[in-house]
Structure formats: C-alpha cells, structure tokens
Design the sequence.
C-alpha cells in the first residue's frame, strides 16, 4: 500500500539522493549527473516552498518524490522521481495524479512539465500535451509538456455527489417495460441477450463506480483493465445474476446478503433506467407515468408544445402521421414514394434505432412495394414521418444528441451535446468533447434540450435523459425522440469527465458499440488483445477502454470499446487502429505479434 504525505525538511538530503538515483537509472554518465545536480537538489528550506510530497510504503520507506512549484494560474511540475526498484509499479502515476489534484485546489490552470526524454512516454501516457518549447535548459534535451488541471465537472458532482456509486446494469429490465410496444426483441430471449451485453456499460454509469451489478458473467480481470486508466481501485463486481430473462433487480432482492452489502455503505445507486423493480429495492417509487415520453408519439407532442411557446430558433419539426397498422402505413409511404419523397417509418418504442425503417422511392421499388419494405416492422400502430433531408450545407454532422438529467430536487442539469454515428437508422456510437458539436448547433441544441428537461421535470421524471436530432440542409435541428435513461453518449460523457479530472481538461471520447473480431477469443486472449490495443493507442496519444467484452467468444465475435484523446484526428486514428487490429485476429499472426485464437474454450 503506497501513501502520500508532505515531505519534511530533515529528509531533504535523503530525497535528493533518491532523485539522483532515479536520474542515473537511465544510464547518464557521471559528468552529466554532476551538471544536473544543482538543479535537482532539494534543500531543507525548499521543502515547503516547492510543495514537495513523497510516496512511501507501509513500512515508511520512501518510494518517490514530486513537487508543485509556482503560483496560479501557471505552475510547474518541478520534480517527479521514483526509486529505480519500483519504476513501472504505479508510484509515479500516483504522484502525478496527486499533483494535478493539488494544482486544482490552488487554482492552477496551466501546469508546465520539462521532462527527461526517458520520461516523455510516461507523461504522454498520463495525458500531458506536448508544447513547442521548454522552460529549462534546452541543452539538457528536455521535452516540454503542459496540462490543464481540472476538477470534476459540476454536472458530474451533481449526478452522484462526486463520489463512488453502485452501478446496476438493468438494461433488459428497462426494455422489458415496453415489450409488445417496442421493436428489437425486448420481450424475447434474443433481445435479453443483446441487452445483457449492453449492460456491461454499467461500468461507466458514473465517473467512479464502487460496485457493478451485472446480469451476465464478464471476463475475469476486465474491470481492473478498464479501471487502471480511470483511476478506479477496489471496484466490486457481482455478475452472472441473470443469464436468461430480464429481472436483475429481482435477482438482487432474492439475495439478501448481496442487497445488504450494496446498501451497507449508503452509496447512491445508478441504473440504466427507472423500473418498478428498482423502486421496490430502493424504496423510491417513481411518479405515475413518468416514462411516458419514451413513446415517440408522446415525445413529438412534447416537442410541439415547446415550439408553440416560441423562443426556439433553429429548431424544425418534421411532419408525422400515426397509422393504425402496416397497411395504412404502406399506403402513405407508397403515395410519398410516387411523389419522389423519402419516408421514415417507426414503432412507438425502440432501442438504438431498432424498429425504424427509412424508405426511399428506390427502396420501395427494390423491395417490391411499400408494404414489403415495412415487413421487418411489427404489427400494430406505426409512426410515418417526413424524412429530413440533410446534412447542413457546411457538411457537418447529420445526427446530434443532447444529454442532461433531472436531479432529485427537480432541477435540470445540462451535460452537453454529442455527435452520433447512425447507420441505416440504427445508432452505432457517439463522440463527445470540445468542438465536437459545430458552433452553429450548440445554442439551439442546448436551448431545446433544456426545455425538454424542464417539461420532463414538471411531469415527475427524475434521472438521465437525452434528445436526438437530425440536421437539415438549412442548418436547422429536427428533434426526433427522447430517451429517459442512460445512453451510449452518456457513457462517453462519464469517461470524459473522469479523464479530465485525472489527466487534464479537453478530452474527446468516442464510444463504438460494435467492432467485429476476426476470430473468437477466449477470455485470456481477449485480455491479451486489449493490452496490446491499450499500448498501441497510448503511442498515438489515446486511451483505449474495452467497454463491452461479452461478445468476444460469440459465434460472430465482436466487442464494444471507447477511445479518448485530446484531438479528434488522434481519436480517428485510434478507432481505425482498434478496428483493424480486431479484424486481424483472424490471421495466423496478427499485427501485434501473437497467434490469434480461434478454437473452443
């Protein structure tokens, strides 16, 4: 167990010797070390002024030292050295993160680092950004970095109080509430299986999980691999509670010892979405009808009401008609197709774009008519909607979303906008971060999203929500639906908030729901692949997180992941690298130098 404390004046010489041993570890000759000694020396009178801290083991042995020098708004990481025998064991990471937290407390907004070339990879891996020049002696070959220390953002503190939380992966349970009204198999075994895979995202329901409660068994060691770059420690995992069916919270109720353990520390509980079973376990019953705006028809009524009040420039609402069944929907689609118009047809409930079909005139003809084009949709009422032609003239993103939540006190908290990846009407991923949403879309997106939040709060809803939009050719936003639950973009926001707190502000995060694997990978080989991907992404300046691991040994193997970086071009490169490497697992030798697995467990 490594702990941190303030250095004492009487150990200044001891700490100086540690610094010199650490510097010498990289093979510098005696002449170079002598030249560095005056700059690296710690004097008794410097300990407090330079804010020197030490890392020590449980026996009081000093393992490392760091200093935070200067005054706000700009300061310097003056020293960060680790005893050579423990280099690579996390001591430097602990000292670095503690220095960033201290910098935040002191109001530092720019932290400068002049790094030894051998330490450049460490600082890059910790999220520091290279700068053009160094403040130290250029002849020493120092590498300049900087970081913007940042606290946990306000909305994240409001979400769970800024501390750890219990995360419940009740995706199938939430979806089952709409069985019979939704498309996507929410009421059958196939739909539950898909939802149980998606429940792995419970790891990211807040910036700091204390425990995960999951329906399906996840690979051993997965949470440690995910948690390492996110600074998580001691996360408890309770998995395999529901291999079939949807009743995760009922399964928890049937385990009194587990229920007592989860409630014992008084931590907040965060679920994918609100259900009656969750209310029974927590004792907090939701308001009657609080989820009614999960209905796409009801959401449209809400949008219409907001727009009737005015004050929402840049928002346009496409026309929509409710059809009693497939025949009525097909007749309207056929009439629109004959007029050369594209139509969106969707069920009143659906998950991730399931239950939605975009019918172009060409698709109607190729399918053998409008009725045939709607064959994949279930029987019952359908919504027929005008297709919004886009994207905007500047070639910006087509699909946007706004995330926020309604707190227990009814206050609406804005989180932000994201760009979604949608393929053939189905959600495939999202990107969040600075400058991701085009500047022209930021104000209308936030204004309309906040207005939706206020309506939800007035209707008694409490929890996370998002509003999805498409852009038209005039640069306007058309709202399409609300989701009264956590989402893929919400996961990206949580990870961005945590990385900004640990590594400095400005992270862009992308969640990719599904990447195909070239071979079925048992747990050990999948973990090996993830380790290789983490190292390869780090070389690009990105963070890799395996988000959904449970499909890696499926008959058609796949997994979901997140990547994070300070620049979108690095994010793009990291995603391309991960996808290519995942597919290469089908080769005899893949790009990372190990033999891919394709055999049974």
Sequence:
């Amino acid at each position: 167990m490594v702990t941190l404390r303030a250095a004492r004046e009487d150990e200044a010489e001891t700490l100086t010797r540690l610094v010199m041993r650490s510097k010498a570890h990289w093979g510098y000759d005696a002449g170079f070390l002598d030249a560095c000694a005056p700059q690296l020396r710690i004097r008794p009178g410097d300990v407090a002024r330079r804010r020197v801290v030490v890392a020590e083991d449980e026996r009081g042995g000093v393992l490392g030292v760091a200093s935070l020098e200067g005054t706000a708004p700009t300061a310097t990481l003056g020293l960060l050295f680790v005893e050579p025998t423990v280099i690579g064991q996390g001591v430097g990471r602990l000292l670095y993160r503690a220095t960033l937290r201290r910098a935040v407390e002191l109001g530092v907004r720019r932290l400068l680092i002049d790094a030894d070339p051998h330490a450049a990879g460490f600082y890059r891996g910790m999220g520091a950004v290279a700068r053009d020049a160094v403040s130290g002696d250029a002849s020493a070959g120092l590498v300049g970095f900087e970081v913007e220390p940042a606290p946990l953002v306000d909305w994240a503190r409001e979400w769970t109080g800024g501390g750890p939380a219990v995360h419940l992966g009740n995706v199938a349970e939430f979806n089952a509430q709409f069985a019979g009204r939704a498309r996507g198999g929410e009421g059958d075994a196939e739909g539950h299986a898909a939802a149980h895979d998606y429940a792995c995202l419970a790891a990211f329901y807040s910036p700091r999980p204390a425990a995960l409660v999951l329906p399906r068994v996840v690979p051993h060691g997965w949470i440690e691999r995910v948690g390492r770059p996110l600074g998580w420690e001691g996360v408890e995992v309770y998995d395999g509670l529901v291999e079939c069916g949807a009743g995760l919270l009922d399964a928890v109720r049937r385990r009194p010892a587990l229920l007592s353990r989860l409630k014992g520390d008084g931590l907040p509980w965060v679920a994918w979405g609100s259900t009656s079973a969750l209310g029974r376990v927590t004792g907090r019953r939701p308001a009657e009808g609080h989820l009614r705006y999960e209905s796409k028809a009801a959401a449209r009524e809400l949008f219409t009401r907001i727009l009737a009040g005015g004050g929402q420039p840049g928002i346009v609402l496409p026309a929509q008609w409710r059809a009693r069944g497939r025949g009525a929907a097909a007749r309207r689609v056929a009439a629109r197709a004959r007029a050369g118009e594209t139509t969106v047809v969707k069920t009143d409930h659906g998950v991730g774009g399931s239950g939605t079909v975009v019918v172009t005139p060409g698709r109607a003809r190729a399918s053998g008519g409008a009725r045939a084009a709607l064959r994949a949709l279930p029987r019952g009422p359908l919504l027929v909607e005008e297709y919004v032609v886009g994207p905007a003239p500047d070639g910006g993103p087509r699909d946007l979303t706004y995330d926020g939540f309604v707190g227990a006190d009814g206050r609406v908290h804005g989180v932000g906008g994201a760009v979604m990846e949608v393929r053939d009407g189905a959600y495939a991923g999202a990107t969040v971060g600075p400058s991701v949403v085009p500047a022209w879309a930021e104000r209308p997106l936030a204004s309309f999203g906040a207005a939706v939040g206020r309506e939800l709060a007035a209707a008694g809803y409490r929890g996370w929500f998002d509003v999805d939009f498409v852009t038209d050719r005039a640069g306007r936003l058309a709202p399409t639906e609300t989701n009264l639950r956590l989402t893929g973009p919400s996961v990206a926001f949580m990870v961005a908030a945590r990385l900004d707190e640990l590594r400095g502000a400005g992270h862009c995060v992308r969640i990719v729901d599904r990447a195909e694997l070239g071979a079925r990978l048992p747990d050990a080989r999948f973990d090996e692949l993830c380790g290789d991907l983490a190292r390869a992404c780090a070389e690009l300046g990105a963070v890799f997180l395996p988000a959904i691991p449970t499909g890696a040994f499926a008959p058609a193997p796949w997994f979901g992941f997140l990547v994070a970086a300070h620049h979108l071009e690095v994010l793009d490169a990291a995603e391309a690298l991960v996808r290519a490497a995942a597919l290469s697992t089908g080769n005899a030798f893949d790009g990372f130098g190990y033999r891919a697995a394709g055999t049974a467990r």
